[in-house]
Each structure stands twice: as C-alpha cells, then as structure tokens.
Amino acid sequence: MDRLADNLSDLFVLVKVVELKSFSKAALATGATKSTVSKQVRRLEETLGAKLLYRTTRHVALTEAGELAYRHGLRIVEQATALRGAVDSLQEAPRGHLRVTTSVAFGNLHLSALVAQFLARYPDITVVLSLSDRYVDVVEEGFDVAIRLTSNPVDSLVARRLAALDYVVCATPAYLAARERIATPAGLAAHNCMVAGQGLEDTWRFTRGDEGSEVRVTGRLAVNSSESLRQAVLQGIGVGLLPTYAVDADLRAGALDVVLPGYRAEGRFGNSVHAIFAPSRFNTPKMRVFIDFLLEKFGAGALWSAASPGYESNSAQPPSASATAASQ
Question: Which residues are in the HTH lysR-type domain (predicted)?
C-alpha cells in the first residue's frame, strides 16, 4: 500500500470521475487531459490489483472493488478538504498554539503577567511558556519565539527589538548609610560587589556623557541568577549590578537605592529585549498578534524604569507595532 500512499492523487481522480460520470468532465475539472485521467485510473487499478471501473462509450460504472475504492477515496477527499479549511481558518484568525521561551527572572517578573493578559485578549490561542537560563535553539527545539536579552541577535533569525535594557548598581539604604559615599566607579573597589556569574571577580563598565570608565570589583558572592542576586542585595550585605527590570519595584519602594545615579552601567545581557523567531513563523496570525501585543506593552511606556534622580537610561523607543520585522 506504500505505492497508494505515494499516489493519492490517483484516488482523488477516481472520485472525480465517479462523481462526474465522465473521464472527459473529470479531466476538465482537474485541469488535466483525458489521457492523463485514464492513465491515473489505470495506475490505481494496478496498485490495488483490481479492476475499478466498467467503461463504455457513454457510461462509467463501478465494480465491487471500485465501490470500495470510491467510498474510501471520498472519505479521504473530505478529510483533505476539512484540513484545508482548518488551515485557512488558522491563517485568517489568531488561533492555535504558541511555544514561547525566555529567561527565568525575566519570565517570572514580567513575561508571565503579559502572557496572561495576551490570553485574555485572544481566547483561541494557547501558550506554553518555558523559562530557562540556558541558551535555547528556537528552531531546533520547536519554539515559535524566544524573548531574549541581548545586543547581538542571531543573524539567521528575525529579531524585533521590544525595549531597551538598562542596568543599575544598587544597594540597600542601610548598607550605603553605614559607609562612605561612592562618588565614582573607582570607589566600588572598596566594597563587597556581588557578581553575576561564576567568578568572584568582574569588571564593571560605565559611561557618563562621552566618557567611559571601568573598575575591577570583587565580592564574597557570585550567583548566575538575577533573582538570587537581587535577594542577596536586599539582605544588605553588599552592592550588585542588576538589570532594572529586576529591581525597579524595589527602587520605587525605597528598598534599594541606585549607586552612581549619574552613570550608565553596562550589563552582561546586552542593551535590548528582543523577540527572536524564524522568518517563516511571523506569517501566522497568532505570531503577528503576539509580537504586536508585546510591542504595544513595551512601547506604551517602560514596564520598568529606574526611579532615581539623575539616572541615565539606555532607552530608545522600540519600533511601533506596525513596523516591519527586520533581520539582525
């Protein structure tokens, strides 16, 4: 039966011949020649090993085997038509299944809430949100889109910039009050600077206007999670360099203060939040409305912004929701 599976078009032609009771009309309906239609029916008979049609100059009649072939063929044609309708419907309206991935901290703090709002707006879409701090291969692992914190998106994929990614050096008011004021980046060298990563030493870089500076910092804690680093800073044991999306609420509440508010800090994740996806993915309505939704939420005003006088943001307005996706 493998040959039959390879030549289902022959079965479709048989159905058309039976419905129209004519090889000539079937040829006209399928855009083929009469000889081609005859050849396909003969090939189907050879594949099944049975005669399917009695054919005279005026009539076409089914054999017993032909009746079975027609009934099964008709069912397959109906299923194929239903499949086409379902796919067409999928292309016309935002519906279907989305697989989304992002980092653990960003997902917990921001994307999970946005996905919940998205689902409320689009009830015919379902989402699986995967949070992971490892590098996820969007194409190989079957994700529709990755929300990635980076300055350098993968060249082979499409990247839509959603928002600027800013960083601050921060500590608790009590920690800062008990020590001499940190006036310049060089002053950080005398503090317990907790490091994001695997080593207890790091180089922190800053800009102020056109001037750049860097300082080698050390600390008693290294951790590869923004959430864990934030918790350590909140305990008042030292200073941390964190993305503003992780600590904005703490800054607004006064639980943390920005150190060096006149400087812009560089962070290990890069300067932008991007939606990363394969070019073919954007053609579906479910993906278009998801990307537009994120652009709307990020572009309508920062979901996070360091609440500290003199803080210098890396922000630049992301493209509007109507902008065309651009490869980077």
Answer: 6-63
Is residue 296 within 8 A of residue 321, CB to CB? The reply is yes
Q: Which residues pair with 55 in a beta bridge?
A: 60
Q: Which of 242, 203, 207 is nearest to 219 (CA)?
A: 203
- pLDDT tens digits for 71-121? 888 888 888 877 877 777 666 789 999 999 999 989 998 999 999 999 999
Task: Please state, in angstroms and rounded to a whole number, the distance separating the CA atoms of residues 230 and 240.
Answer: 7
Instruction: Check if the beta carbon of residue 282 is closer than 8 Å to that of residue 324.
Output: no
Residue 169 to residue 257: CA distance in whole angstroms: 9
Q: Which residues pair with 206 in a beta bridge?
A: 213, 265
* 64-70 contact pairs (CB < 8 A, 24+): 66/14, 66/18, 69/11, 69/14, 69/44, 70/14, 70/15, 70/18
CA distance linking residue 135 with residue 269, whole number of Å: 12
Domains of the chain: 2-92 (1.10.10.10), 96-165+270-299 (3.40.190.10), 167-265 (3.40.190.290)
For residue 74, give both structure tokens: 């008709």
In this model, does residue 32 exceed pLDDT 60? Answer: yes
Half-sphere exposure (CA, 13 Å, Cβ side) for 284? 18
pTM: 0.66
